[in-house]
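Entry 14. Ran structure prediction on the chain below.
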Amino acid sequence: NIYDNWIPQSRGVNDGGFLSETSGKWKANPWGLLEMHGNVAEWTRSVYAPYPYNEYDGRNDVHLKAKRVVRGGSWWDRSKHATASFRRAYRPYQPVYNVGFRVVVE
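Output, structure tokens:
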């Protein structure tokens, strides 16, 4: 597509989509979860803090005024960032067009 040449891309992992895609297009992973990587990066409640992770160090306090962790890659990012281990920090009020959240329905 001539219109999406500005998007960082890897021809080996091109799914043919443009920007974000509707849910249910691909099969579930071994845990039954769908589209976990590459559509949008995901907001988390954790404060951006150094590793190792410690759930008792206050990083999950929703009242802290600090940058929050955004995990994974999106349609905008390079394919190497489409993993749950990749993270970056954004202010909670910062509008980010390629970051969202995931809804889990059982």
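Strands lie at 41-47, 68-71, 87-90, 99-100. Will compare against last week's run tomorrow.
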